[in-house]
Amino acid sequence: MSFKLFEKNTPRWIVFSIDLSICLGSLFLAYLVRFNFSIPAVEIELWKFAIPTVIGIRVISFFYSRIYQGIIRYTSTADAQRVFYTITAGSIVMALANIISYFIIGIYLVPYSIIIIEYFTTVFLLTAFRILVKTIYISLKNPSREKKNVIIYGAGESGVITKRALDRDAGTRYKIIAFIDDSLNKTGKTLEGVHIYNADGDLEDLLRANTVEQLIISIQNISPQRKQQIIEKCLTYGVKILNVPPVNSWINGELSFKQIKKIKIEDLLEREPIQLDHENLRKQIKGKTVLITGGAGSIGAEIVRQLIPFEPGKLIVVDQAESAIYELELEITEKYGWKNIEAVVGDIRQVNRMRRVFDHFHPQVVFHAAAYKHVPVMENNPSEAILTNIEGTRILADLSHEYAVENFVMVSTDKAVNPTSIMGATKRIAEIYCQSMNAISKTKFITTRFGNVLDSNGSVIPRFKKQIDEGGPITVTHPEVTRFFMTIPEACQLVLEAGAMGKGGEIFIFDMGQSIRIIDLARKMVMLSGLTLGKDIQIIFTGLRPGEKIYEELLADKETTLPTHHDKILIAKVREYNHQEITKQIISLTEMFRSQNNEAIVMKIKEIVPEYLSANSEYEKLDIK
Fold first, then answer.
1. Please, what is the average pLDDT of the chain?
2. Comparing C-alpha atoms, which of 115, 119, 186 is closest to residue 157?
3. Whole-model pTM?
4. Collapsed DSSP state (helix, strand, coil) of residue 564
5. Considering the domain boundaries, does residue 624 fall inside one?
6. In this structure, are 219 and 318 located in the same domain?
């Protein structure tokens, strides 16, 4: 039989004729079974009433329900239900017709035993016919040996729904060979005909013994550590990992195979959810006017999103990027339904513009996320770095003091710790100024410091993704370079929490977990993409860029930090500066912008931050002097 024949839709009259033939066959089979394959002549005589009655009712019910119009090769549970309802309704009508005929002509048109047997036989055969056609079609379209083997992690309700979504939407391409589950009570049992294995004891054996194409994580409440263990094991055997999205994102409450997405590198770096003091945060934010600088950037925009549940009175989002701030405003108003947002296009370095913003809106809380952050770029543009990272911060801090802002929270970086770059050193000076302001102001000046943020603008993750999509090579600066990583939501949650707990003058640092080798990150991203390192794509080393360190520091040890009530937030013990002294130094530094003398600017920065020693930079010669 040609496969192309199955690809064509069978004419409705043929399906209708086959269904009617099945009904007629079921009727004869019912008589044979009822009378032990020896039908009495008297019953055959009554066929002149029985056959027209049964076939007539079936024809009418088929026309009414139109079960013959379904495409047989795509038969689903809904089609089987329609067959059941149609045949059930027809059999009920037959039973009623029997009662009527008995009272009118004194005989039953069809014996009740025949009606019952014919009913069950017809339902079974009509359903079986459709399933048989679908099975043959699937087998011809994609023979079993050509199907890709899939394992589902999670033998609960979500696992069953995942299997059904796979069968319904992609069953022609995939074969589910096993469920795995952490529950020992489920091990050894079967679920919808598929054997359940133990995740710890049997997964590796399954991966070793079978050519497994994909493993789908269907469990909704899996811990990050457990997810990482499963993913790492699968990556060892070159198995692609997919993840079932949260139930609340299913379309109309139903899971589609297209919604099952590949695991991202961010999933490998997840940690346990952060526990926030929602009551304290709500007290700090509810009903207040909150200003966010750099609000269209990845960190600033996420702060805006996370502030919404705490019901601020108004959100003032400041950024230079016109298109990005417009997109954010649309997202907040349309997706979140939040109307109390004001998008302000402005440069934090322009004091008159910022004064207008403070004078008009009178913010009560300020989150300062605006900054230049790309290390190599700022290494070549030190005058711009001091103007934005230092002078821009000073302008905002001074206005916050002048307009009696309650809390000023600055977003800083781990690169400010023992800086080796202009970017890191300028952020350190901004930290120093904010901390010094706390001694002269009623405003609480709080600094938060953390490492690299996954998927933020310009971070290594989007760069590697782009390089992988383009076929490589992946560029890594040094085989030993390591970085601390945190997701954007996690970083912003800690910024909010630190802002709420701060008393003023603190530099909060976040527990970033273990540092990660960038080359290991690149390798895992290649594996998650289903590619083979060295065969499909290469990694090349380009050398450290100007200002870059091999290892980042957070000062997150007991000798240099103090604990807080939150186990992921510590307070850095750092030298404090006199406000008047640091102000004089900063004014002197920013006045050097006019000269555009990079060496003189960097010398002045090193004077203010003595621990700043340049790395892989032309300014190393200034350290030697």
1. 82
2. 186
3. 0.67
4. coil
5. no
6. no
Beta-carbon contacts of residue 152 (< 8 Å; ≥ 6 apart): 159, 162, 163, 176, 178, 179, 180, 194, 215, 216, 218
Does 625 map to a domain?
Answer: no
Q: Are residues 393 and 450 in the same domain?
A: yes
Number of domains making up the chain: 3
CA 279 – CA 501 distance, rounded (Å): 11
pLDDT for res 329: 92
Q: Which domain holds residue 226?
A: 144-263
Residues 100 and 228 grouped into a single domain: no
User: Each residue of 493-506: pLDDT tens digit?
Assistant: 888 888 888 888 88
pLDDT at 543: 83
pLDDT at 511 over 60: yes
Q: How many other C-beta atoms lie within 10 A of the C-beta of residue 342?
A: 15
Which positions ≥6 away from 455 have C-beta within 8 Å? 266, 298, 461, 462, 487, 488
Q: Alpha-carbon distance 233 to 373, whole Å?
A: 36
What are the strands, taking DSSP E only, across 358-454?
Answer: 365-368, 407-413, 444-450, 452-454
DSSP string, 144-200: GGGSEEEEEE--SHHHHHHHHHHHHHHTTTEEEEEEEES-TTTTT-EETTEEEEEHH
Beta strand spans in 231-308 (E): 240-243, 261-262, 289-293
Q: What angle do CA 398, 399, 401 make, to 5 degrees?
A: 65
Are 79 and 201 found together in one domain? no
**131 and 153 together in one domain:** no
- For residue 302, what are its two tokens? 């996420």
Mark whether 460 and 539 lie in a shared domain: yes
H runs (alpha helix) in 502-625: 518-528, 579-591, 598-608, 620-624
Tokens standing for 231? 């993913």
* Same-domain status, 23 and 12: yes
pLDDT tens digits along 36-90: 787 778 777 777 777 888 788 888 887 877 776 665 555 666 677 777 888 888 8
Structure tokens at 283: 């007290």
End-to-end CA distance of the chain: 87
Give the pLDDT band of residue 111 (cuts 50, 70, 90).
confident
365-368/148-153 β-pairing = unpaired
Report the 10 Å Cβ neighbour count for 122.
Answer: 26
Identify the bridge partners of residue 261 per DSSP, sorted by sequence position.
Answer: 243
Q: Do 370 and 490 reside in the same domain of the chain?
A: yes
Residue pLDDT, tens place only, 124-155: 887 887 777 776 766 666 555 567 888 888 88
Residue 202 CA to residue 199 CA, distance in Å, equals 6
Tell me the residue type at 228. Q
Helices and strands of the chain, counted as H and E runs: 24, 22
240-243 sheet: strands from edge to edge: 190-191, 194-198, 174-181, 148-153, 212-217, 240-243, 261-262
CATH classification at residue 342: 3.40.50.720
Over range 415-423, report the average pLDDT: 90
The per-residue pLDDT for 624 is 66
Task: Supply the pLDDT for residue 558.
Answer: 44
Please report, for residues 69, 118, 140, 217, the alpha-carbon distance to residue 121 in angstroms, rounded to integers and kept in the order given: 21, 5, 28, 40
Q: Of 201, 234, 263, which closes a domain?
A: 263
Q: What is the pLDDT of residue 2?
A: 45
pLDDT of residue 450: 78
Residue from 250, 268, 164, 177 nearest 214 by CA: 177
Domain boundary among the residues 141, 157, 176 is at 141
In a domain, 613, yes or no: no
569-607 as b/e: b if 16+ CB within 10 A: bbbbebeebebeebbebbeebbebbeeeebeebbebbbe
Check residue 457 and give its pLDDT.
60
- pLDDT at res. 6: 46
